[in-house]
């Protein structure tokens, strides 16, 4: 296991380097002059040239990349031009809100997806199977931002059960229960699509395992149906589901950009939308880089969990 962990850890290094290169290249591909976009169309050439020197935009792209990467390695992500504060401070402050949203959505995704998949497999061809299968297909077909707007119209504006936006009320006391009250709608809207993916994969994996001989043997020995399903079938079926859960984290982090914008959630997704509009290059690069590295590390963790559950993977 130790050798597998070291091998997978070393593979993260070139992936992370590629992520930094892609993040930097994306900003170069955006059309227009960033300095002029920041200062406005009425800026003088002297002011534009001064800002370009401050942002190192007057240097060749490869020099800009090496300088930026060297600063990032030392923990210096630069200073946000639009906010006039260190980029790292801003993205860490915002990222905590995004992690809360994405983490809650991941919890809903895993619990709902695994439960629906297990029930659908055990009750194959019955009404429970058909209901969960249709529900998973509907969840896969609805974009998270559209579902978020439907939730606002129905549960916030129509029924008044939940707030329409924000993480805390603008006025009055705030506590964990208040944050949870604001979290329900955005987390659920973000989770349902990913839950559909997990449910369908869990169902197919469970059906494959339930047909194996060792499951029939365990049943013939008089072991209870519930014990056979959870201790034998699910334990082996979940091995194929764990990597997909890691992949869905990327969907949740990406979908958070839309959901945070719709709900006014003060996370990194909403920050990126604003930063792109103001052409705050360093803020966009820092935010995207942090999200991408988080996704890489979570997928690494998912691979290690899968290897711990299935020795064939780490010995292969």
What is the third-level CATH name, the topology? MetI-like fold
Number of domains: 1
Instruction: Give the overall average pLDDT.
Output: 80
Biggest sheet strand order reads: 1-2
What structural category do the secondary elements indicate? mainly alpha
Amount of beta strand: under 5%
Helix content percent band: over 70%
Structural description of this entry:
This protein is mainly α and 316 residues long. It has one domain (87-315): MetI-like (MetI-like fold), CATH 1.10.3720. It is 79% helix and 1% strand. Strands 1-2 form a two-stranded antiparallel ribbon.
Short description:
The chain is mainly alpha-helical and 316 residues long. Helix content is 79%, strand content 1%. It is built from 13 helices and 2 strands.
Write the layout of secondary structure elements.
Blueprint: H1 2-29, H2 34-39, H3 45-54, H4 61-73, E1 79-80, E2 85-86, H5 87-122, H6 127-141, H7 144-158, H8 176-210, H9 213-220, H10 225-263, H11 268-277, H12 281-309, H13 311-315
Antiparallel strand pairs: 1-2
Helix pairs in contact: 1-12, 5-6, 5-8, 5-10, 5-12, 6-8, 7-8, 7-10, 8-10, 9-10, 10-11, 10-12, 11-12
Index terms:
316 residues; mainly alpha; MetI-like fold; two-stranded antiparallel ribbon; 13 helices; globular
């Amino acid at each position: 296991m130790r050798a597998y962990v070291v091998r997978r850890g070393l593979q993260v290094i070139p992936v992370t380097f590629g992520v930094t290169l892609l993040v930097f290249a994306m900003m170069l591909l955006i059309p227009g002059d960033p300095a002029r976009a920041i200062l406005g169309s009425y800026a003088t050439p002297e002011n534009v040239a001064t800002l370009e020197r401050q942002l190192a935009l007057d240097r060749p792209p490869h020099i800009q990349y090496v300088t930026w990467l060297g600063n990032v390695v030392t923990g210096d992500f630069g200073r946000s031009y639009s906010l006039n504060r260190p980029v790292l401070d801003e993205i860490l402050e915002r990222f905590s809100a995004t992690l809360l949203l994405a983490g809650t959505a991941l919890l809903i995704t895993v619990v709902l997806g695994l439960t629906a998949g297990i029930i659908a497999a055990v009750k194959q061809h019955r009404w429970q199977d058909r209901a969960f299968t249709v529900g998973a297909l509907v969840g896969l077909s609805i974009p998270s931002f559209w579902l978020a707007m439907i939730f606002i119209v129905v549960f916030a504006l129509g029924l008044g059960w939940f707030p329409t936006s924000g993480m805390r009320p603008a006025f009055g006391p705030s506590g964990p229960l208040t944050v949870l009250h604001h979290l329900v709608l955005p987390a659920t809207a973000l989770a349902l699509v990913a839950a559909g993916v997990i449910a369908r994969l869990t169902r197919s994996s469970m059906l494959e395992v339930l047909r194996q001989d060792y499951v029939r043997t365990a049943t013939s020995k008089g072991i209870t149906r519930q014990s056979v399903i959870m201790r034998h079938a699910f334990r082996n079926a979940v091995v194929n589901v764990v990597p997909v859960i890691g992949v869905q984290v990327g969907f949740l982090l990406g979908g958070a950009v839309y959901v945070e914008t719709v709900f006014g959630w003060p996370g990194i997704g909403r920050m990126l939308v604003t930063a792109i509009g103001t052409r705050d290059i360093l803020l966009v690069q820092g935010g995207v880089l942090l999200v991408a590295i988080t996704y890489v590390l979570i997928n690494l963790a998912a691979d290690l969990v899968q290897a711990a559950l299935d020795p064939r993977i780490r010995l292969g």
